[in-house]
Please model this.
Amino acid sequence: MSDSKKKYKSSSQPRAVSASEIARNLGNFETWSSHQCCEQSFDCSSGFAKFIRDASQTAPELFSVDHSASNELFEDVCVVFSAWKRLAKMRSSKEKWSEADFVVNVVQCAISLPQPQDTFQNALDVPRVLNTKTVIPDCAIFIPASRTRPLSHSAKSPYKLLKNHPAVVKAGNAAKRSSFRYQSTPCAQLPDMPGFEFASSFWEDKKPVHALLDDAYRQNRMSTTAAVRHLHSLGIDAPITGLIWADGVVRAHVDWCEESEGKTVVMSAPYCGPHDRSSNDVFHEWKLDRPSDILQVYFLVRNIDEWTTGKFSSEYIVRGVNQMVEKLSSSERTYKPWKRVGDLAPPLKSNALKENHNISATTVVTSDASPSPPKPKSRRRRRRSS
Model:
């Protein structure tokens, strides 16, 4: 009989399970992996164990014997570990890095600065400084629009009630960019839909020069001052957090508003670290090349995020704007715009003051006031900063 005419019996072997079927069935995969001598390791790299060990020795308070949240934190901590390795590689490299290398990956938002509360003294450079209207932080944390929408879009929302209140309408002017729609957000650029916007935190990053940490703190205070003044104008008593980054070092501060002798005073408190620390420095510094410090910064950032979408949003913001509506309607509180508007003119000269003793040397003149006529023979143009 030729080979072509041979008949073969059907195999009694069952069909092999496919790889995807093994993966979908935990029992099948356990059978396969045990026969392949496979073991699972919760170490995302050879250096991960040392990273965790170093962190636990330096900051044991970060760790707990309760392992219920270990699986949830594992992936997040692996991301922190990857960032730590990347930072170590950058710092050991001879390549120079600057702030501009990272700005291209960040969408930045211009923040409106607040209106000065005090009249300025008789100095020509003061208006040049106070005429600045915006600041651009390197990072701004806002409550998601989906959480502020109920406060803004319905006919009886706090936003609509405040916007249409006679005292609020009288306090601003849309043509001068001082109406309530402009006052309801700390941003210089208005949102597409009229409504509230609330920021909870601002971050400032500087080039890797240690001395620039102080510059970053001052610049960040301009952003946080705008945010707390915005909150205060709406009757919201809540702090704003600030983070400062430079050369692998992070600092933090907390800002808030207080009333003192009829003025709204903006307080700023540097975070000085644990009470039992031995350093006398004003700021506590987290050095990101230390495993324990970079983990603490990660938890700090995560807590800011949870605070923003949690208690800050659901308690402080909601309660504040609703109480503002009630107190404004019952005349228990007045409304005061906060945003920077108009241009400040330089102080009048002393000879003009002698001619009219009713004019104060600390008068503030905005753009809606009529300027004094120039001298006929003077052809010099006065520089104005926007």
Notes: The chain has a mean pLDDT of 79.
